[in-house]
Design goal:
- There is one protein chain.
- This protein has a domain of 215 residues: DD-peptidase/beta-lactamase superfamily (Beta-lactamase), CATH 3.40.710.10.
- 27% of the residues lie in helices and 22% in strands.
- The chain has eleven helices and 20 strands.
- The strands form six sheets. A five-stranded mixed sheet has the order 3-2-8-15-16, with no helix packed on it. Strands 10-9-20-19-18 form a five-stranded antiparallel sheet. A four-stranded antiparallel sheet has the order 1-11-13-12.
Length: 404
Amino acid sequence: MPTTNRRRAALPVAALMTLFAAGATGCASGGGAEEKAPKAQSSPPHKAKEGLADILVAGRPVTGTKPSGNTKIPYQRTYSDGELYSAVTGYRSLAYGAAGLEGIYKDVRGTVETTVDPALQRAAADGLRGRKGAAVALDVETGRVRALVSAPSYDPSAFSGNTFADKGAWEELTGNQDHPLLDRALRQAVPLGGAFHAVVAAAALEKGLYASVDTPAHGPGGTGGCQNASIRQALRNGCDEVFTAMAAEVGPDAVRSTAEAFGFNDEQLKMPVQVAESTYGDGETTATPLQMARVMAVIGNGGRQIGPQLVDRIVHGDGSVQKPAGYAAAGRQVIKQETAAQLRSALSSGQLTTRTDKNAWSVALLRTADGHLLGVAVRADEAAPSGTAPSAPVVDRMAKAATG
């Protein structure tokens, strides 16, 4: 569908993939068609009496400390369920530095308390096992990240030291063509296909071109279930032609401004880990799974966007408590409350699933057992798009875990 951007020319959605390599400091680095292996680097020295801060999930440490045998760097990181939580923790290595939360909070003495729910995390990881992809779940009212999974994953314990075994594990990971060190949930933006339809629909409703999601399309809009389809029907039936015509009617500037209100074209997003930019324009519309979870969270939260935030608080060794950098409790209004309510109604019947040439997307709003609403996005790569989209069963697993 035609798009413009004040920095980009108007072109249709393209199937280009942007990879964002996991930098040793936890910041985004340049992307390309291939994942670049991080370079080995030295880790900062730690005082023997201080040890390393623990990262907690649901109050339980998923990291630990053991003696390294090195007098200059006396402590070495250990991990519990390292493969399950690697997208949450990142890694810390005596030989290869630190990334993710491990890199950001490497100087903290105390605990780093994350927002992740273990049941949701495991459900997403199990659903993506054996595939490349990612899953994110956000609490729509707080912006707290309840699940953050990238697949395939890795165990940070395998290279946390500086032995020959650590070197072998690192070289195996960095040479792996599936790029397990790449955080696909936060650091890889890929083409969206029909998952972007919800944003186009929001732009049309915001501009007042449709009274509701049940207003028939203004043009013929194709055949079958897409003939004169309403927004509700077009979302359910994946009517690309309806939304292409709708985007043209809304106008590229309005679509762009709505997309940017949702968080597209934001190069500065941190949670506190740096997040890759999701883009609208310049020949491609791409997004990270985090960004699409944010879109769903806005729809589920009356048009208001809060977060995202992976860390609840940092408790220092002296007992003082600190909120993470960038923490924002108030949020901001992205779309009108009425627009959000209309879209929530249209999406309430289940997940929105779509495919591109190389991957499948599923987005949904899920209700937890204690009444919280989650914005969920799952992306799963696939070679031959046929049958059930591989992202759909992952959402089903997460829905079951959310209700207990």
